[in-house]
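Example 3.
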Amino acid sequence: MKLIKNAASRFVPDVVNGEKQIPFKGVGKFKPENKFASHKIHSCADYPSDGNKVETNLKTALKKAGLKDGMTISTHHHLRNGDIVTNYLFDVIHSMGIKNIRWFPSASFPCHEHLIKYLEDGTIHHIEGSMNGPLGKFTSEGKMKGVGILRSHGGRYQSVQDGEVHIDIAVIAAPTSDPFGNANGVQGKSACGGLGFALADSEYADNVIVVTDNLVPFPCVPWQIQGNNVDYVVKVESLGDPSKIVSGTTEITKSPDRLLIAEYIAKFLNEAGIVKEGFSFQAGAGGTSLAFIPFLKEIMKRKGVKASFVRGGSSKYLVEMLEEGLINYILDGQTFDLDGVRSMLDNPKHVMTSPFTSYNYHGKGNFASIVDAAILGATEVDLHFNANVVSHSDGYLLHGIGGWQNCLFSKCTILAVPSFRDRIPVIVDEVTTLCGPGELIDVIVTERGIAINPRRKDLLKAVEKSSLPIRSLKEIQNEVYEICGGAPAKPNVDKNKVVAVVKWVDGTVLDSVHKIM
Amino acid sequence: MKLIKNAASRFVPDVVNGEKQIPFKGVGKFKPENKFASHKIHSCADYPSDGNKVETNLKTALKKAGLKDGMTISTHHHLRNGDIVTNYLFDVIHSMGIKNIRWFPSASFPCHEHLIKYLEDGTIHHIEGSMNGPLGKFTSEGKMKGVGILRSHGGRYQSVQDGEVHIDIAVIAAPTSDPFGNANGVQGKSACGGLGFALADSEYADNVIVVTDNLVPFPCVPWQIQGNNVDYVVKVESLGDPSKIVSGTTEITKSPDRLLIAEYIAKFLNEAGIVKEGFSFQAGAGGTSLAFIPFLKEIMKRKGVKASFVRGGSSKYLVEMLEEGLINYILDGQTFDLDGVRSMLDNPKHVMTSPFTSYNYHGKGNFASIVDAAILGATEVDLHFNANVVSHSDGYLLHGIGGWQNCLFSKCTILAVPSFRDRIPVIVDEVTTLCGPGELIDVIVTERGIAINPRRKDLLKAVEKSSLPIRSLKEIQNEVYEICGGAPAKPNVDKNKVVAVVKWVDGTVLDSVHKIM
């Protein structure tokens, strides 16, 4: 393994886990020349003609799927921190004496701390997917056998579609399924909303196992996952803890600083001329993105304008706007609370999307770039508007990328960040880990002011007469450095020891995450 | 080209249009060893970031798609006999001086007689798809430059998925589309219902052009065709004649013989124990399949049983049953009348299906084999229960296969046929063209009696005490031969001149269609 300087001046390995890598070449610069992943042609003659694919248990299904050492096993994260299927899956894999699995989740949660023992004993070789919380710490300390690979939701779809990651066995936890494997997440006691993050897995894996705690007669409608892609169906008692799968209801932050940021964002969108009839926006369920919605709603009502669509994780706030007729459609990638689940089930204008429709950069366009404004967070930003979303200034890997990189392609990308956290400044000279190139980040909103990327002369002009606190990043940084006593300490890492890499949306390597010393 | 005897004892060419063929090996016997078709990886960098893919006209779109001689162009048939897009498409192709196109429609209709001049002048080399009416006659007379290839709806999906047919440009007529190419058939003045027959085209073609007469703002919901698969969108004045795209309403035959057959079928299903709580059936909009529905409905109401689902083309009769709660779901492949379109638009229990979900034999199972009973037609049947659906006893190719071959995999396949047509007996010693092997055909119902395939001892036993006229095929044949003056004349064809082949659901060649002398 050699470290190569890529187009973002970051040093990245040429080989990761034995596979040759392409270093980042610049936004929109890498043109794939290969063809899509291809896979074995199946025959109905090999599947039960009555459509009944139910297996007695997960172990039997894994055996039939030919589980062996070194395989790639994928899971999705729609059960969030309530997921018990993934932990159970690896308990079974471990009990079968299988080793060196590449675990390919669409994201991981603190509940997956259970898997650390399997990372330690060699059941799991490495994780490709978000390494949040405890798994991130484990990785940062250099304890994982292989190198972690972080991808955006769109990058995950791209990697599977392009054949960069070949999934041997996909295990899809499904809140409702029929014996044929048609499945959805909107019905059943473990309802979680959409199942879009499992789409690539269902389409491209050699073997697809649906695990459900609500087996219904054929046909399971809607079928968010198509049974025609499924090999086996396994019934279990429970997929997890419903209260951790979705919130009863999502609550908005009470932090005055975050509320101020949220208000600034809504006002900025209005004064920059973005809030107008038929506009669109992306909003997640993170603190500030959620908090900005009521402010925006107020402006929209006052102006009498409607949004054509909203992309993002859905919550009761978006559902209310949909039901009040303030937005025409919710294009939902992930459902955060029970109001969201109910709305997706009942309202044809609340549409499930997938990383294919919304985020895949190796498609014929995607939804993310059509969105007028995206409101996102970051752990760090630097003076060139580059941003970090996976690690903290101390170097620890603690978050996944989610759809963050993909959303940067919106027409106006806004990062909502507090100017410091725990007395550590957020606007730094150089981000610890580069996740998003500054050229794609248009506005940074802090409680101390709003910085507009100098490349966006149009936005600067649009708000030149605004009463909003438009300032330079440097100015805000200086102010914060004074309060916090200067720049944050450099992380104490071994620059020669790469524990994980961050992929760009096109599969190239954008940056490295280093071992904490 | 050499003629080889296949597993059904039919002589089929080893090479068709320059491509090597696999002769039919028996039902479920051919195991594909290849991988799926792969295709070029795209990049969002090459598509408009605002999602606007609208081109000024079809010619520009075809040019950008790189149209050239010898390419494969696909179309779908959801506009049925009201389609003017396909004719217009070939007018444009002809005006560009392009030659030797392989036209790959999901079906053709009498309105496509317009294309005969392009078959004559070399614009179109040959048709792979149904050659109905005038196009069938043209083919039968040996006038087409290449050899026609007939596939079932499922076989068409299989051929594209497997890479047997590579589509260069798919032209998808869409009653509603947004500028990104998300499209559906349930909205707009040319509404036709589902667009499932265009699914494979949208997924696998190198270039996808959506042609619409109802361009709506993003997002077009529902998106039956996903814009992420689309390259260009073209707006035209009109897709065709709405009154020929869907019927105002579908009417049941008044022929006493056909009504008797329909009644026999409903009674048979009941007496054989198939009509019970949660059963399922497939019914199209063809004369007798439609006529049997009211008889079945009567029985269901009397017995107080509900069907779990119905597969097939939808019409007001099925919609009524859905709305009355007699069936739980309509799994709809094709929408035949305005009641069907309205129901698909409004009723979440009226679900669009595609050849992928319902018919593709090279999938991990499909819906067709889950269905308890399928009611189909035929042009001829023979004493071994083999059946023909594409040609008549005079040898002329006059119909497409549709989903017929795929539906033969139902748990009880019933062919509804009059015992003679225009004084020509329908039960023959050997079918002119073999489309469905007798081992998959369970029951043949005529107005003179019901013949059960001797392989289905279970069915024979189930109705042994029935008052229904259960007879042997031979007995019915004898009776009809007496009325009609013996067996029909052998078709006057040149057995060495193959004008078209009939593919089986797995891509192997089941039979040949010969030139009329």
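Chain B touches chain A through 64 residues (CB under 8 Å). The mean pLDDT of chain B is 96.
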